[in-house]
Every structure is written in C-alpha cells, then in structure tokens.
Design a protein that fits this description.
Blueprint: E1 4-8, H1 13-25, E2 29-34, E3 53-57, H2 63-73, E4 77-80, H3 87-92, H4 94-117, H5 121-126, E5 128-134, H6 159-178, E6 182-187, E7 189-191, H7 200-209, E8 214-217, E9 223-228, H8 229-242, E10 248-251, E11 256-258, H9 259-273, E12 286-289, H10 304-310, H11 318-331, H12 333-341, H13 343-352
Parallel strand pairs: 1-2, 1-4, 2-3, 4-5, 5-6, 6-10, 7-9, 8-12
Antiparallel strand pairs: 9-11
Helix pairs in contact: 1-8, 2-4, 4-6, 7-9, 9-11
Length: 356
C-alpha cells in the first residue's frame, strides 16, 4: 500500500475542490477517477500540481478498470464523491441516478473489497473507504423540528435522495457484513468556486449578470443549511484522518437560509461588486416559478458530533463564503464561458474519447 489516495468524481464540484485542497495540504499522490459527464470538468483541476495527480476517465462501475487501477496504485484510501446529484434532473430522468448512485456504487464497493482483501492484515487495518453523501437522505423538516443528526431515520423524498440513501445503506452493509473499513459523511448544501451553474447560487449569479430572470421556486421560503465547499473538504479530511470506522458524520455549515434570502443576498453583492449598467437593482430580475414536485421544505444539519469528536467546525459564515463565491465567478469569466458553452466538453472529447 502506498501514500496514494483514489478520489472518484474528482473532476466534479466538491471532488475537485477536495483534490485541490488535498494537494495543497497533504502528501502523496492523488488518482482522480471520473466519468467526465456534463458536470465533470478537467479544467476544475487546472491549478493542481500535475506531477502529483493523475486523471483517469472511467466509470466507477467499470470493474476491470477500477480493479486494475487499485492493483496498480495500491491506495491507502478511496474517497467516493462520484454521484448524479441534481434533484431536478432526477425527477425528469431517474434511471441515470439509480445506475450511478446505486448500481455503480455497488460495483465500486466490490472492487474495493477485493482490493482490501488482497492487502496484508496491517494494511487492511489502515485502509479506509470514505463515502460522501447528503442530508437529503433524511427527508424534510418542519420549521421547529430539531436538525438532522447521525441518528435521524432515513426518509428520502426524491429519486436523487432515494438513490443516495440506497448507496449509504450499501456502504453500511459492506462494513457490517464483510468488515470493509468504511466512513460515511452526510453534508448540507454546498456552494463555492467551480460549482456547475445548474444549482441555485451559481445560476442566480450568472443569470443576473446576463440580464436573465432569476427563477425562484414556489414562495421561496424553503430553508437550506449552506456549507462553503472548502469547509466541507476540511471536514472530510478530518473524518478520513480520525473518524471511527463504520460511523457516519454529519458535516453542516450552521447557516440556515431561506432560498429567497439567498437570492436577495446574491443580488445585493452583485449590486456592490458588479452594478447593472442601468443602475437598477438585480433583485428586479427575480421571478417566482411553479414549485418542483416533492420539494422538501427545510434541511438542517446538527454537526455537533464533528465538533465534539473531531474538533471540526466551519470557518466561513454564509456572508463571508457567499462573498468569496460571487467574487470567484466575477474573476473567472473564462471558466464560466467554457462551462456554459460546452467548450470544455469538446476538450474532453478530444483528449479522452479513447480512454472513456
């Protein structure tokens, strides 16, 4: 076993932020395994030290590729960020979510189990499989309900959250049945740099700058706990380092916000940092649209276990994290243009067609 980790989904939003942070603060090599679907962008890793990481284009469900990768690099840990993650997409096409989040995760677990069993006993004890999941598996909360804890029962309400709940259960079962040393994290809504612009915050930023409507579902009163992506990544590193095998850890931002308040705050920041040419407020572009089916009303994470057991807490408030996020999108128009135009997909096609 080497001082190497495998990060699946490492060219996506959270995965790429994790890889960049890991290379900055940790030693060893990183093997990034990513299918490079619409949200997997090699440009997300552009600032990384290419001498310390390798990008492999493959599906986590491809047993022959994953088995060979593990045998070649002999990682000390596998971190699974790979997932279909957009609720709206899961409503319109649930099949891909079942395939990636359930079937392919099962295949990955089998590959990792076979690799783990091949290791000497001392290396088996040191190995970890860390599975990154979501608070959406817990369902929805009322306005006065206690936040989700690690003991909260699962009650997923969308095809996406149901598929992630299934993957969590598989990971748990592979630990209890086979002894695979696993860790699971359930996070709240992430935001920050490199976020694909189908999600709320980047969509609002970019639509506002382009003079488009800012669509808000329903009455905009849905509540989410917002977690700056770099804080999430530091939390995952702490769990990998010191988490107890077989346990789950909730990673939250301690920043509950109503969706409409998020949009209004984005507008206010843009009014300050990139005012409209006509001098009007960006909030004038807000447009309420029909709510999506089964829209959960409130999510909230109780991250006290992370604080009490692992000494972790988020560094960013919502105000500081959102300001950094808006500033990043304003400072990186080329990345935005490549994502919105699909030009990065041309790069993937040219460079990875024969390897995918």
């Amino acid at each position: 076993m080497t001082d190497c980790i495998v990060v699946t989904g490492g060219a996506g939003f959270i995965g790429s932020n994790f890889v960049l942070q890991w290379l900055q603060h940790e030693g060893g090599r990183v093997i990034v395994l990513d299918k490079l679907t619409y949200a997997g962008n090699p440009a997300n890793l552009g600032a990384a030290d290419t001498g310390r990481y390798e990008l492999v284009c493959a599906d986590i469900g491809n047993r022959s590729v994953v088995d060979a990768l593990l045998a070649q690099h002999k990682p000390r840990a596998v971190l699974n960020f790979a997932a279909e993650s957009h609720v709206d997409r899961s409503i319109h096409g649930p099949g891909e979510f079942i395939q990636t989040n359930v079937v392919a995760t099962f295949s990955l677990l089998e590959s990792v189990r076979a690799y783990w069993l091949s290791l000497p006993e001392s290396e088996q004890q040191a190995f970890r499989f860390l599975h990154v999941s979501t608070d959406e598996v817990f369902g929805t909360l009322g306005p006065d309900d206690a936040a989700f804890s690690e003991a909260t029962s699962y009650a997923p309400n969308s095809p996406y959250s149901a598929s992630k709940a299934a993957s969590d259960h598989l990971v748990r079962a592979w630990h209890h049945t086979y002894g695979l040393p696993v860790l699971t994290t359930n996070c709240s809504n992430n935001y920050g740099p490199l976020h694909f612009p189908e999600k709320l915050i980047p969509l609002m930023i970019l639509n506002a700058l382009e003079g488009k409507p800012l669509p808000v579902y329903g009455d905009g009163q849905q509540v989410r706990d917002w977690l700056y992506v770099e804080d999430h990544c530091t939390g995952i590193r702490r769990v990998l380092e010191s988490g107890r095998v077989g346990e789950t850890y909730n990673i939250g931002g301690c920043n509950e916000q109503k969706n409409i308040d998020v949009v209004l705050t984005v507008c206010a920041l843009l009014d300050e940092l990139s005012p409209r040419a006509d001098g009007k407020a960006y909030s004038e572009q807000i447009s309420y649209v029909k709510d999506r089916p089964g829209h959960d009303r409130r999510y909230a994470i109780d991250a006290s276990r992370m604080q009490n057991e692992l000494g972790w807490r988020p560094s960013e408030t919502f105000a500081t994290g959102l300001r950094k996020t808006v500033q990043w999108y304003l400072a990186n128009p080329e990345w935005v243009a490549n994502v919105k135009s699909g030009a990065y997909r041309d790069w993937v096609e040219k460079n990875y067609t024969e390897r995918c």
